[in-house]
Design brief:
alpha/beta; Rossmann fold; 14 helices; Four Helix Bundle (Hemerythrin (Met), subunit A); 8 strands; 3 domains
């Protein structure tokens, strides 16, 4: 994931490394390449426009410090903007103060809801007693798939009675099972569709009303591309999403949804699936993802270097001292602070 985007950004920064200062032409050329790289990565065009404009505003008029090259300055700005659109800090799953905590998994068919439901259950099993509930009564073998995955992971399972066709009733009855078996967390694996339709949304709205969830988590396949934004906006408008789970981040997709879903909807990306095993689920960390995209070394060190740089007056004073072959202890202190 992100390999092609990483390569494009590396080429952009490489083109700036030999420059002593940034000209408007340099900035415009870099922005053109950033725009092209993001669009090719299937990032929604509205998000691309916002990111490029933010970078332009921040880069224009910035003085390049003696200790920071033009490439490093642009790199820092691009990195910070990527983090901004994906989310400044990881957002944990909410836990209800009064059990049970209920997570409602929603999304299109094939996005990975069933596997993700078990992955979440496995992740929280050390501190909670989760119950996964099969509410997808449309897809062939969906109930059996969830049952098998739950058994392999030693997770409690609840499903429909033979011939039962009402997923809302299944979800409602799961609360009694959870109470009887001291399960303090219920994870509802709902039905998906190949495409969004009103029937699906109405079913999910009814389930939300019958079994009010603590979290409504949209599961998004990272290989979906720009359509992921439309999917997220529709689900959020009808259901009021509280979080997003990205799946298949270990694949060879371009990674557009990771950069666009939160920026378009305001809904935080909370988790990321990075493999097929039940353990392959991690907290979504925008800073780590941005570092992978940028493909450069000690980003935290460089950020500190840029952000803690002294005032322009101090830099100019030290430069003049060096020109006059005079380097005082005070100049040395300023240099160490850069």
């Amino acid at each position: 994931m992100f390999d092609s985007l990483k390569e494009r950004f590396e080429n952009i920064f490489a083109g700036l490394r030999g420059k002593g200062k940034l000209t408007p032409e340099d900035i415009n050329e870099a922005l053109r390449e950033v725009r092209r790289a993001l669009l090719e990565a299937d990032v929604n065009y509205k998000v691309v426009k916002d990111v490029v404009e933010a970078i332009k505003v921040r880069a224009t008029g910035r003085t390049v410090l003696d200790s920071v090259t033009p490439a490093q300055l642009i790199f820092t700005i691009v990195y910070e903007e990527l983090v901004r659109i994906m989310g400044e800090a990881p957002v944990p799953l909410a836990i209800s103060p009064k059990p049970p905590t209920i997570y409602m998994m929603v999304g299109l068919q094939g996005s990975g809801k069933t596997t993700t439901a078990v992955k979440i259950a496995k992740r929280v099993a050390k501190s909670h007693k989760p119950l996964v509930v099969a509410c997808d009564l449309r897809r062939p073998a969906a109930v059996d798939q969830l049952r098998v995955l739950a058994e392999k992971s030693n997770i409690h399972f609840w499903g429909p009675e033979p011939g039962e066709t009402d997923p809302v009733r299944v979800a409602s009855r799961s609360r009694k099972y959870a109470e009887d078996h001291l399960c303090d967390m219920i994870i509802l694996d709902t039905a998906g569709r190949l495409q969004m339709d009103d029937e699906l949304m109405t079913e999910l709205e009814t389930m939300k009303a019958a079994v009010p969830p603590t979290e409504i988590l949209l599961v998004v396949d990272s290989m979906t591309g720009q359509e992921a934004v439309n999917v997220a906006e529709t689900f959020h408008r009808r259901l009021g999403l509280t979080g997003v789970v990205l799946t298949k981040l270990d694949g060879d997709a371009r990674g557009g949804p990771a950069l666009a879903v939160r920026a378009s909807t305001g809904v935080p990306i909370k988790l990321a699936g990075c493999g097929e095993k039940t353990e392959d689920l991690e907290v979504f960390d925008a800073k780590r993802i941005a570092q992978r995209i940028i493909g450069m070394g000690d980003i935290e060190g460089l950020l500190e270097k840029v952000q803690s740089a002294t005032s322009e007056a101090d830099i100019n004073r030290m430069t003049e001292s060096l020109k006059k072959n005079r380097f005082t202890m005070e100049d040395m202190l300023l240099q160490l602070q850069l």
